[in-house]
Design a protein that fits this description.
Aldehyde Dehydrogenase, Chain A, domain 1, seven-stranded mixed beta sheet, 15 helices, 22 strands, 2 domains, Aldehyde Dehydrogenase, Chain A, domain 2, globular, binds nicotinamide-adenine-dinucleotide, six-stranded mixed beta sheet, alpha/beta, single chain
Length: about 475
C-alpha cells in the first residue's frame, strides 16, 4: 500500500526500512531567506552501525536476485520519484535555493531518467577464451555495502547517480547527504521504503564526522564520494583501512577557449549558462573563459549585456534565473574572493557589490575583465557566480594556461573551424572535453575527472562496473 508522504515535516532517517528520529538534531536553513526550515536528525555511531549491519544482512538476498529483478525495483523507484516530483522540486528549491521552474525541475527530470535507463543496463559476462581444453569467463560480482557521500549543489541527482548503479550491480547502500542539504535525500529514503526490501537503501544524516565514520567503517566495502578535492583526499586516506574501493568525483577549474572565428553575440548565452548555471555552484561550470584577443572586447561587451538581463533571487519566484549561494560558509568564501578581487584592483566588468542588508546568501553576477593568470579568481574554484574572462593570442600559450592547474574535470572549445577546435580540444587535460556544446551527460556516457578532479568513473557501463569486482572463472573441459 502506498502511504502519503509529507514533504514539509517529519524528516527522519531510513535504517533497515524503518523511520528513525533522534533527539539530537541540527537545523536546515533556506538560503534565500536564512530561515530555519526543519530539524534534521543527527545520526550517532550506533545508528550508523545499525544501518551498515542491515545493509550487510540484506546484501545476501539482494545480491542473489537477478539483474532483471533488481532492474524492476529500480524502475519502480524511478516511477516513485516521478510520483513525488512536484513535492521534491519544491523541497529542493527550499533547501538548496535553485530556481524551482528550471534548475530543480531539470534535476528531478534527470534523476527519474537515470533510474529508468540504468534499470536496463546489464554487465554481461564475457567469454574470454573457449578452446577445446578450457573456458575462461569474466563475471562482475557486487562488492557488498556501499557508503555514498554527496555534496550540496545537486543533492538529488548526484545521490541518484550513486544509488541506482550501486543497487543495480547488486550492492546495498548507506547514504549520507551534505548537512547543508539533507531534506530531499531523507525524503528519498522514505520513498525507498515503499520500493526496496528493508536495508537495501539506508539514509543517515549528520555532519562531516558521520562522513568520516562511514569512510572508516570495516563493513563498508566501497565509498562513492562527490565533493571537494580536499575532502576527497581525506576519504582516500581513511578508506585505506580495509582497502575500500573508491570513486571520487571532486572539484574542477574548467576552462573554455573561444576561437577568433566565433560569433560572440550568438555564443554568449550558452557560455553564460555554462558558467553561471546553479549560481556557479557546479563542479563542471566554466570557471575560466579564454577569449582570443581579436574578438575579446566585443565578446566581453556582449557577455556583460546578456548578464545584465539576469534576475538573481528566491528560486520560488518564476522570474528568478539564479538563486542564492547554498550556505553561509560558501557565501563567506565567495565574498572573500570578491574582496581579493577588489584588494588587488582587478577590473570588474559587472557586479561585485553584495547587499549584506538583504536576507539570503545572494551574490550578484560578477564578471572580471582579464585578471592576471596567477590571481585567486583564476587559480581557485570560486563555486559562485564570478567568472574571469581572460585574453589570449597564442594557441600554445592558451593550452599551457588551461592545463596549468591541479584540476582536470572538463573543458570546452568554441569556434567555426571545427577541425581546428577539435585539435585544441585534444590537448586539454581533462576527463571530458566538448566542442561547440557543453554539459551533455547521459547514462551511457562515462564521466570522471583527471588529475586531482577525481578517481574513477560515474555513469555508463564503466561506472556500473565500478560497483563490482571482476571475477574470472576458468574451467577445464
Ligand atoms: P565537501 O567536500 O565539503 O563535502 C562533501 C560531502 O563530504 C558532504 O556530505 C560532507 O559532509 C562530507 N564530508 C566532509 N568531510 C568529510 C570527511 N572527512 N570524511 C567523509 N565525508 C566528509 O564538498 P561540498 O562543499 O559539499 O561540495 C562542493 C565541492 O564538490 C566542490 O569542490 C565541487 O567542485 C565538488 N563537486 C564535484 C562534483 C563532481 O562530480 N566532480 C560534483 C559536484 C560537486
Amino acid at each position: 500500500m502506498i502511504k502519503t508522504i509529507a514533504f514539509d515535516k517529519d524528516f527522519t532517517m531510513t535504517i533497515n526500512g524503518k523511520s528513525v528520529v533522534k533527539e539530537q538534531t541540527f537545523n536546515a536553513v533556506n538560503p534565500a531567506t536564512e530561515e530555519i526550515i526543519a530539524s534534521v536528525p543527527e545520526a550517532s555511531k550506533d545508528d550508523l552501525e545499525q544501518a551498515v549491519q542491515s545493509a550487510k544482512t540484506v546484501f545476501k538476498t539482494w545480491s542473489n536476485k537477478t539483474p532483471d529483478e533488481r532492474g524492476e525495483y529500480i524502475y519502480k523507484f524511478g516511477e516513485a520519484l516521478d510520483r513525488y516530483k512536484e513535492e521534491l522540486m519544491s523541497l529542493l528549491t527550499l533547501e538548496q535555493g535553485k530556481p524551482r521552474h528550471s534548475g530543480a525541475k531539470i534535476e528531478l527530470d534527470m534523476s527519474i531518467q537515470w533510474c529508468k535507463e540504468v534499470s536496463q543496463q546489464r554487465l554481461d559476462l564475457e567469454i574470454i577464451e573457449d578452446t577445446e581444453q578450457h573456458v575462461v569467463e569474466k563475471h562482475y560480482t557486487p562488492l557488498g555495502v556501499v557508503g555514498a557521500i554527496t555534496p550540496w549543489n545537486f543533492p538529488v541527482l548526484l545521490g541518484v547517480w550513486k544509488i541506482v548503479p550501486a543497487l543495480m550491480a547488486g550492492n546495498t547502500m548507506v547514504m549520507k547527504p551534505s548537512p547543508y542539504t539533507p531534506l530531499c535525500t531523507l525524503k528519498i529514503g522514505e520513498i525507498a521504503r515503499e520500493v526496496f526490501p528493508d536495508g537495501v537503501l539506508n539514509v543517515v544524516s549528520g555532519g562531516n564526522e558521520l562522513g568520516q565514520w562511514i569512510t572508516e567503517h570495516p563493513d563498508i566495502n566501497k565509498i562513492s564520494f562527490t565533493g571537494s578535492t580536499a575532502t576527497g583526499k581525506k576519504v582516500m586516506a581513511s578508506a585505506s583501512t580495509n582497502l575500500k574501493r573508491i570513486t571520487l568525483e571532486l572539484g574542477g577549474n574548467d576552462a573554455a577557449i573561444v576561437l577568433p572565428d566565433a560569433d560572440p553575440k550568438s555564443l554568449v548565452e550558452d557560455l553564460f549558462w555554462a558558467a553561471y548555471g546553479n549560481s556557479g555552484q557546479w563542479c563542471i561550470a566554466i570557471k575560466r573563459l579564454y577569449v582570443h584577443e581579436e574578438i575579446y572586447d566585443e565578446f566581453l561587451y556582449e557577455l556583460v549585456a546578456f548578464a545584465k538581463s539576469i534576475n538573481v533571487g528566491n528560486g520560488n519566484n518564476p522570474s528568478t534565473d539564479l538563486g542564492p549561494i547554498q550556505n553561509k560558509m560558501q557565501y563567506e568564501k565567495v565574498k572573500n574572493i570578491l574582496e581579493d578581487i577588489k584588494d588587488t584592483n582587478l577590473n570588474i566588468a559587472l557586479g561585485g557589490e553584495v547587499d549584506d542588508e538583504q536576507p539570503g546568501y545572494f551574490i550578484p553576477v560578477t564578471i572580471v575583465d582579464n585578471p592576471p593568470e596567477d590571481s585567486r579568481i583564476v587559480k581557485e574554484e570560486p563555486f559562485g557566480p564570478i567568472l574571469p574572462v581572460l585574453k589570449y593570442n597564442d594557441y600554445d600559450d592558451v593550452i599551457e594556461r588551461v592545463n596549468n592547474t591541479p584540476f582536470g574535470l572538463a573543458g570546452s572549445v568554441w569556434g567555426k573551424d571545427v577541425e581546428f577546435a577539435k585539435s585544441l580540444a585534444r590537448k586539454i587535460e581533462s576527463g571530458t572535453v566538448w566542442v561547440n556544446e557543453i554539459h551533455i551527460h547521459g547514462t551511457h556516457i562515462p564521466f570522471g575527472g583527471h588529475k586531482q578532479s577525481g578517481f574513477g568513473i560515474e555513469n555508463s557501463l564503466d561506472g556500473l562496473a565500478e560497483f563490482t569486482n571482476t571475477k574470472v572463472y576458468m574451467f577445464k573441459k
